[in-house]
Write a structure and sequence with these properties.
Oligomer: single chain
Largest sheet: 4 strands, antiparallel
Shape: extended
Number of helices: 18
Structural class: alpha+beta
Strand content: 5-15%
Order of helices and strands: HHHHHEHEHHHHHHHHHHHEHEEE
CATH topology of the largest domain: Methane Monooxygenase Hydroxylase, Chain G, domain 1
Length: 505
């Protein structure tokens, strides 16, 4: 049974929330296991024998057949006539089918498997991964010295290096993100927190020691490999480009360039993890700092528990006790009395607010007593107006005039910068000449609008500015451009920039 893509997408997950979801999942688990064993299809009796049925109770053949039919209808399975067991004309006309996972069914099973794996994964700081990265870099250094270098070995070493590094980065990020939550969860139990503290501190100290000892060696290897890196990355990209689908020479060249750009990006990410660049610390240093900061965070949690045990005031503990008292209240009237007492809502006419002629008892509810005049300052700031003459109102007219002049001057400079670019005529970056600070900032803003919208390095971009007042066209050119500004010099690939006002014809 073939379903449309839209229908399949809408029904592929129906089995998860259906009434017999456990049985449906058992059937699909059997097909997922068969796929891992490279078996293409299953018969109903095989599904009945191999599926992990809940409680170990095997259903009847009719129930299995009904589940298979329903999963075919939802699009998770595909049914085909079973001709292998036809021995007579009667068997030929009898409805016998073999089943296999559909394309959508395979996608659902893979997605659910990834979801379950990530949900149950315990992130970790991988000291072994640091050792593996160093070993692969040593291997690359050896391969780079060979004449000629072995492209297959280089590709294998780079692929292993990227795989190990990706696992290290992903697990480190997940560990640090979940560390604070793990500490919060341990705060409720003193004994558990103390045991967790010892294990965590030992774990962090061991990883920090490995990170300090190995990250420097990894950074040194990366710096030594930098001259040979373009050659090594080019070999890996060329080997991967061989698997591209047949096409013309231009398509093959584009595929090679895409592979090479991907390898360069991975190499740059590896460098940024272990080597500080452009004034930014290496990611390994940030990870080390975050791991070290976890120890004081854990100690502060222990200090908070000690304060609670020492009898100091703790608002969260007080609220928990108060909630218990509310739960133990005999009736609503007692709960209301507790509420008024706990939050100081009882009559407060004994304060210094009553007038001399006010003889209303302090037990009189506010709703039944005479009103009391309260100074507005007491309502706004919580204290009465101080004695003495009120402070003089400062004259800020001079400062406001200076601020208006500065804003007008800045707006004039911005309008001049817009007039410099918004001419409606194409301008090359290499021919702009010297730019002042406001013109340069406007140029950076326009570049920030255009560059993220490029689908390819040589693609032109036509779009509106973020405020909707300008329309720009950004076209890459061959050659280099160099722009002198008040803040320094900007150099890069030359582009043609055409800007016009949005309301212009």
């Amino acid at each position: 049974m073939k379903r449309t893509d839209t229908a399949s997408a809408a029904t592929l997950f129906r089995h998860v929330s259906a009434e017999k979801s456990v049985q449906y999942r058992a059937v699909l688990d059997a097909f997922a296991a068969a796929k891992r064993q490279f078996r293409l299809q299953l018969r109903p009796d095989e599904v009945r024998a191999e599926a992990p049925w809940p409680g170990g109770a095997m259903p009847s053949v009719e129930d299995v057949q009904q589940a298979l039919t329903q999963l075919v209808d939802w699009g998770n399975l595909v049914a085909q006539p079973d001709m292998a067991r036809v021995a007579s004309l009667e068997d030929y006309y009898r409805a016998r089918f073999v089943y296999r996972l559909s394309q959508g069914g395979e996608a659902v099973e893979e997605g659910l498997a990834v979801f379950a794996r990530l949900l149950s994964r315990r992130a970790e700081l991988q000291s072994v991964a640091l050792e593996d990265i160093l070993a692969r870099l040593d291997r690359l250094a050896q391969l780079a010295q060979a004449e000629p270098p072995d492209a297959a070995a280089v590709h294998e070493a780079l692929r292993d290096l990227v795989t190990v590094f990706a696992g290290l980065a992903e697990n480190a990020q997940a560990f640090m993100a979940g560390l604070a939550r793990a500490i919060d969860l341990q705060r409720a139990d003193v004994q558990r927190l103390m045991e967790y503290k010892n294990r965590l501190i030992d774990y962090l100290q061991r990883f920090i020691s490995d990170l300090v000892s190995r990250s420097g060696r990894i950074a040194g290897q990366l710096i030594e490999l930098e001259p040979q890196a373009p050659m090594l990355l080019g070999l890996a990209a060329a080997r991967e480009a061989r698997d591209a689908a047949p096409g013309d020479a231009l398509a093959q060249a584009d595929h090679h360039d895409e592979k090479l750009a991907a390898w360069r990006e991975r190499w740059a990410g590896l460098r940024r993890w272990f080597i500080a660049e452009d004034g930014q610390p290496a990611q390994a240093e940030l990870l080390r700092g975050r791991a070290r900061a976890a120890i004081p965070q854990l100690l502060s949690a222990i200090a908070l528990l000690n304060e609670r045990r020492g009898g100091r005031s703790d608002r969260s503990a007080d609220f928990r006790v108060l909630a218990l008292w509310f739960a133990q209240a005999a009736d609503d009237d007692e709960a209301h009395r507790l509420f008024r007492a706990a939050f100081a809502l009882n009559p407060a006419r004994h304060l210094a607010l009553r007038t001399p002629d006010d003889d209303t008892p302090a037990s009189t509810p506010w709703s039944q007593a005479r009103p009391v005049e309260i100074h507005p300052r007491l309502r706004e700031r919580g204290n009465l107006t101080p004695r003495g003459a009120p402070p003089r109102v400062a004259d800020r007219s001079r400062e406001r005039a200076l601020l208006r002049a500065q804003l007008a001057e800045e707006q004039a400079l911005l309008d001049a910068a817009r007039a410099r670019f918004a001419t409606g005529q194409p301008q090359k970056l290499s021919e702009l000449g010297e730019l002042n600070r406001h013109e340069f900032r406007l140029l950076l803003t326009l570049m920030g609008e255009a560059l993220p919208a490029q689908t390819a390095p040589d693609a032109s971009v036509m779009r509106d500015s973020g405020d909707g007042t300008l329309q720009l066209r950004w076209t890459p050119l061959r050659g280099q451009a160099r722009i002198d500004t008040d803040d320094g010099q900007l150099a890069g690939r030359d582009h043609e920039l055409c800007v016009r006002l949005r309301d212009a014809p």
